[in-house]
């Protein structure tokens, strides 16, 4: 589900970190959505990742983010964030691909220096523990992927829904 931030505050961000973040989102970041990340383990052999990627393409599974392996967080797991979680579940079941799932949040909008810091600060001010973040900028647009503790998913949803 995509959400669109509405309204815009053109005034200063003030001293309240959460209000600062709300103002940043309203002014510069136009969408947020809660997504499902799938972590898969692949054999450590040449060509396995290419094979999986070709299967995803053939099944027309749109991928928003694809990275790995990562050590520590989900050791040796490839992380896949599809546009449609249910389509990916069906794809994985059809080919017998074992997965586990985690919620994550995707925030996008116009790039402006400092917005990442403001976003992370506002989340931490609410006592929400960020497990992992992946932020990127391209062509004047910014995207942030944020993972939080399972116990904090509803709280971050509520915080994002304020905007």
Molecular structure report:
33% of the residues lie in helices and 35% in strands. The chain has helices at residues 17-28, 48-58, 85-95, 115-125, 153-161; strands at residues 2-4, 31-41, 63-70, 77-82, 99-110, 130-138, 141-148. Strands 1, 2, 3, 4, 5, 6 and 7 form a 7-stranded antiparallel β-sheet that branches. The longest helix has 12 residues, at 17-28. The radius of gyration is 17 Å and the shape is elongated. Mean pLDDT is 81; it is low at 1-13.
Radius of gyration: 17 Å
Number of distinct helices: 5
- Could you name the CATH class of the largest domain? Alpha Beta
Write the CATH fold name of the largest domain: Alpha-Beta Plaits
- How does the overall form come out from the CA principal axes? elongated
State the CATH architecture of the largest domain.
Answer: 2-Layer Sandwich
Number of strands: 7
What's the N-to-C terminus distance? Answer: 15 Å
Q: Strand portion, in percent?
A: 25-35%
Classified in CATH, the superfamily of the largest domain is: ACT domain
The sequence of SSEs as H and E is EHEHEEHEHEEH
Question: Can you lay out the helices and strands and say which pair or pack?
Answer:
Blueprint lengths: L1 E3 L12 H12 L2 E11 L6 H11 L4 E8 L6 E6 L2 H11 L3 E12 L4 H11 L4 E9 L2 E8 L4 H9 L2
Antiparallel strand pairs: 1-2, 2-4, 2-5, 3-4, 5-7, 6-7
Provide the descriptors you would attach to this structure in a database record.
Alpha-Beta Plaits, elongated, 5 helices, alpha+beta, 33% helix, 7 strands, single chain, seven-stranded antiparallel sheet, 163 residues
